[in-house]
Amino acid sequence: MDARHPDPLHGTPTSEMTDADLAARLVVDAGTLARRLREKGLDVRRKTSISDVVTEADDAAERHITALLAVHRPDDGILGEEGTLVAGDRDRRWVVDPVDGTYNFVSGSDYWCSAVAVTGGDDYLLGAIHRPLTGETFVGGSDVSTRRNGVPVTRLTPGDLAAGSLATYLHPPFFDDPHLAEPFHRVSRGAATIRMLGSGSVDLASVACGIHTVWCQHSCPEWDWLPGRALVEGAGGVCTTVEVNGYDWFVAGRPGAVDQAVALLRG
């Protein structure tokens, strides 16, 4: 396809669409599609547990994103939560979470989103998250300061975990595993308050906006980590991964407070 030819789906010349513009279009389209399908009624399938579910909206939204990427970035790789895997260019890959917070999604909550990230050489990372029920779209990363609905967010300043909120999640059965429960209890007790709301990407967008001081979760796949990490880093925050008791914990938030959270996780 000639790069000057318009996208048949949206009429935008491929060569004129930046990664940031494309990422925003992908998540808005996917989130809008998922919302419309939810309004019509959904068949819900279990993946690994009663709270780990998938719907035809997840599959349809991922297919839509993949189709757009085939037009706009035909040489790029793709990794999707619902099974899409395109090898593509080794230096550039899109990571796709068509519906993050699917349990919330099927339960009628507004606390879910569509999320994508693109990685490249020289530590390039850009992410986008869209919340269809609130109308918020977040874009940011290594080369783009994070913005919400086109407006730059306030840069994150150093913070104190003990004076702020910790957004986190631990699946209930893991409380029986001391290798996970003990670090979780330590870091949770170190915060002024905790929030467990069920969408890591929405949590991380909130961290980027200064609502939560720190976010942490163990064993995150790329689609649950990279879109939100890009937003936090694009807002001046800190992101890191630390191994505790054989599990990787992913931590993001205000400078200083992240170091405090990591110290508590390590014990």
Summarize the structure.
It is built from seven helices and 15 strands.
Walk me through what this model shows.
The chain is α+β, with helices and mostly antiparallel strands and 267 residues long. Helices cover 33% and strands 30% of the residues. The protein contains seven helices and 15 strands. The chain has helices at 19-40, 56-72, 102-107, 178-189, 200-208, 222-234, 257-266, and strands at 44-49, 52-55, 76-80, 85-86, 89-100, 113-120, 124-131, 136-141, 147-148, 151-152, 165-168, 193-195, 214-218, 238-244, 247-253. The strands form three sheets. Strands 4-3-5-6-7-8-9-10 form an eight-stranded mixed β-sheet. A five-stranded mixed β-sheet has the order 12-11-13-15-14, sandwiched between helices. Strands 1-2 form a two-stranded antiparallel sheet. Strand 3 (76-80) and strand 4 (85-86) form a beta hairpin. Helix 1 runs antiparallel to helix 2 and helix 4 packs antiparallel against helix 7 (257-266). The chain is globular, with a radius of gyration of 18 Å. It starts with 18 loop residues before the first helix and ends with a helix. Residues 1-11 have low confidence and may be disordered.
- Fraction in helix: 25-40%
SSE string, helices as H and strands as E = HEEHEEEHEEEEEEHEHEHEEH
The class by helix and strand makeup works out as alpha+beta
Output the number of helix runs: 7
Strand order of the largest sheet: 4-3-5-6-7-8-9-10
How far apart the termini lie comes to 55 Å
- Rounded average pLDDT: 90
| Overall 3D form | globular
Task: Tell me the strand percentage band.
Answer: 25-35%
Q: What is the number of strand segments?
A: 15
Biggest beta sheet summary: 8 strands, mixed
Taking all Cα atoms into account, the compactness measure Rg is 18 Å
Unreliable stretches covering 5 or more consecutive residues: 1-11
